[in-house]
Design a protein that fits this description.
Layout lengths: L3 H6 L6 E6 L5 E7 L2 H8 L8 H9 L2 E6 L3 H15 L6 E3 L6 E4 L7 E4 L9 E3 L5 H15 L19 H4 L13 H15 L4 H16 L3 H20 L11 E9 L2 E10 L2 E11 L6 H15 L6 E4 L6 H12 L4 E3 L4 H43 L6 E10 L3 E10 L2 E2 L5 E4 L8 H27 L13 E4 L3 H13 L6 E6 L5 E6 L2 E4 L5 H26 L15 H10 L3 H6 L2 H5 L6 H12 L5
Parallel strand pairs: 8-11, 11-12, 13-17, 17-18
Antiparallel strand pairs: 1-2, 1-3, 4-10, 5-6, 5-7, 8-9, 9-10, 13-14, 14-15, 14-16, 18-19, 19-20
Helix pairs in contact: 4-11, 5-9, 8-9, 12-15, 13-14
């Protein structure tokens, strides 16, 4: 049994990382500390002036664990890794799914130039990067293939020269077809060298080359080709313009970071400057910042961002000061292998760059906040509307159920889960109906709900006995609201199942009109009309549609496997011969289900083991 007061006394006065868990063993917060003893105890001291977010988090802490490290820097690294892996609810989170690609020039007689997600240290190719934007890399490679006609195929050259016809790229003028011997190895290598020069930022020769091609085509009155070269030249100039910076004195590698915030969200803008050129810029979304200071928001971003990116510059210009500055500088020094400075410029060109980044962050946030608000309305806002209609509070997880028949014989059930107004696909579940013969939706629903919640209770008991708390399993997270795809009859079935299991969960029916469109909600023996133009109505409709889609896809998968003719095909160890023997001996699935192991083992082709498998299949509570 975990007693927080007792465990607080055992905390060491050493650096480390602490991990907070809720009652279901979910990680809800990860933090680092110079002294675990002092830091963790602060959360549970009532005299502390905690923010509302911290008070809510502490109220949900069931137990905690910690990992001791040798230094604060090690704790910082471990903290970043754990936050990225578990994405705790109460941590300020960087929404960063961006990759950092490389450009590879292969070590071949006729090299290829490719985008690569990872660098292979063992091959003999030449790598450029990593780059901050995969989109910019693709644009650059697209230009290179159009200008220098570098091959993209996987043919082994010169071995395969002349063995196959040239590909489409040759016919559209984007490959010089070395596979046909149309260009010598020396000339092709020269083209690759020019392309590499382009990758290294030398754009002037490219612009002159394309301009010369454009003028030559124009003189030859090949105006369509001249227009193509003109467009190529403009593309190169635009790419070059993006990578210019106005002050030649800023010749070092540096990142410039500033942010804008509103309510619970922030947008961080990063300019990437390498050798005096701005090679790219990216904006990143940070959530859960409502009660955080500007210093804390920027600190969390810097830690999480540079823990994931392979690109560490010599200098990082920041909008304002951050916490743990010395520890973060040391962390970055170790990652880079050289000293890294975190600076907050007050004057001059560096300050201008920071303010320019801030202006860009403001623009992105202003543009995106409307989308964020709209998404919030259609998810969390819609849930609040449903709460008001039903007189409920704290509604987060909703489960919806549906039953469908296959050819009037086999039936299947589906369970769809929405959390905070969004589908949670990982928690969806499918059921093959075992105890019902024919299209009896009420009996099938009773079986599905009984299996679902019985197994959930069993998982909870097992976890409680094993860990002293409830870890998340397949079924032990119960909903705040059950949505039935029907009215009074379906709701009553659900309520009967819950009562038999001594569970108290609100159940609501989604009532349809004569045209099979939702017209209201059936709750507490009353049909509640709902505004069909409201976000709550739209959410109910999405849940209904998703529940139908999921069960229909399950049907299709079964039909695709040829499994619709008998549920007996689902039983391990029962092949076609034993299935036919069971069907000859018993008139219905109900009779098979009622048979004992001894009775089943007496059937032709059945033995003790296969009889036990049949018995267990029909008496197991839940089909995982």
């Amino acid at each position: 049994m975990f007693v927080i007061e007792d465990e607080l006394k055992k905390l060491p006065a050493r650096p480390g990382v602490y991990i907070m868990h809720d009652a279901s063993d979910q990680i809800i917060y990860v933090g680092k500390a110079i002294s675990l003893k002092n830091r963790v105890r602060q959360y549970f001291q009532s005299s502390r002036n905690h923010t509302e977010k911290i008070r809510q988090m502490v109220a949900h802490i069931d137990h905690f664990e910690y990992i001791v490290t040798d230094s604060e820097v090690e704790a910082l690294v471990l903290e970043c890794n754990l936050i990225k892996e578990h994405r705790p609810k109460y941590n300020t989170m960087l929404k960063d799914d961006k990759g950092y690609p490389y450009i590879r020039v292969t070590n071949e007689a006729f090299p290829r130039i490719q985008l690569m997600r990872k660098k292979n240290e063992k091959d003999k190719s030449k790598y450029y990067g990593p780059f901050t934007s995969a989109g910019a890399v693709r644009d650059s490679l697209d230009l290179l293939h159009k200008i220098y006609k570098i091959r993209t195929c996987n043919r082994s050259l010169p071995r395969d020269i002349g063995k196959e016809r040239p590909c489409l790229n040759y016919h559209i003028g984007q490959c010089s077809a070395p596979c046909q011997g149309y260009i010598s190895e020396e000339d092709y290598q020269a083209q690759v060298a020019q392309a590499v020069d382009f990758l290294e930022g030398n754009y002037d020769p490219v612009i002159k080359l394309v301009e010369a091609r454009m003028l030559a085509a124009s003189d030859a009155m090949e105006f369509e080709r001249a227009a193509e070269q003109r467009d190529l030249m403009n593309s190169v100039k635009q790419l070059a313009e993006k990578q210019k910076i106005t002050d030649a004195n800023l010749s070092d590698d540096r990142d410039v970071i500033a942010f804008a915030r509103e309510e619970n969200d922030a947008v961080v803008q990063v300019f990437f400057i390498r050798s005096g050129r701005m090679i790219g810029r990216e904006h990143f979304y940070v959530t859960n910042v409502r009660e955080e200071t500007d210093e804390a928001v920027l600190t969390d971003f810097v830690k999480q961002f540079y823990a994931g990116t392979p690109i560490i510059p010599r200098e990082i210009l920041l909008q304002n000061e951050i916490d743990d500055r010395e520890a973060i500088e040391e962390f970055l020094r170790v990652r880079r292998g050289q000293k890294v400075q975190l600076l907050v410029p007050k004057l001059g060109e560096k300050r201008r760059l920071v303010m320019l980044a801030k202006e860009n962050a403001d623009m992105v946030l202003k543009k995106d906040m409307e989308n964020i608000r709209r998404e919030t309305l259609r998810t969390v806002g819609a849930v609040h509307e449903i709460e008001e209609w039903l007189g409920l509070t704290g509604l987060s997880r909703m489960e919806s159920y549906d039953i469908s028949n296959i050819s009037g014989y086999d039936s299947v059930g589906s369970m769809v889960v929405f959390e905070n107004g969004k589908a949670k696909h990982a928690d969806y579940r499918k059921f093959r109906i075992r105890t019902v013969v024919g299209p009896d939706d009420y009996a099938s629903m009773r079986e599905v709900l009984t299996r679902r919640f019985s197994h959930g209770l069993k998982e909870q008991e097992e976890q409680q006995a094993k860990h002293g708390s409830q870890a998340y399993g397949k079924f032990n997270r119960f909903p705040d609201l059950i949505l039935m795809d029907g009215g009074r009859g379906q709701v009553n079935i659900a309520l009967e199942v819950l009562e038999s299991l001594d569970l108290k969960i609100p159940v609501c029916g989604m009532v349809k009109d004569d045209n099979h469109r939702t017209r209201g909600l059936y709750y507490n023996n009353v049909e509640i009309p709902i505004d069909t133009h409201s976000e709550g109505f739209q959410l109910i409709t999405r849940i209904q549609d998703e529940t139908h889609r999921f069960v229909i896809e399950y049907h299709r998968s079964l039909r695709g496997k040829g499994q619709t003719h008998s549920i007996l095909d689902e039983i391990p160890g029962v092949g076609e011969t034993r299935r036919k023997a069971l069907m000859r001996h018993y008139k219905s699935l109900e009779e098979i289900r009622a048979a004992s192991v001894e009775e089943l083992s007496k059937i032709e082709t059945m033995n003790k083991r296969s009889a036990l498998q049949v018995y267990d299949f029909f008496h197991k509570e839940v089909n995982d």
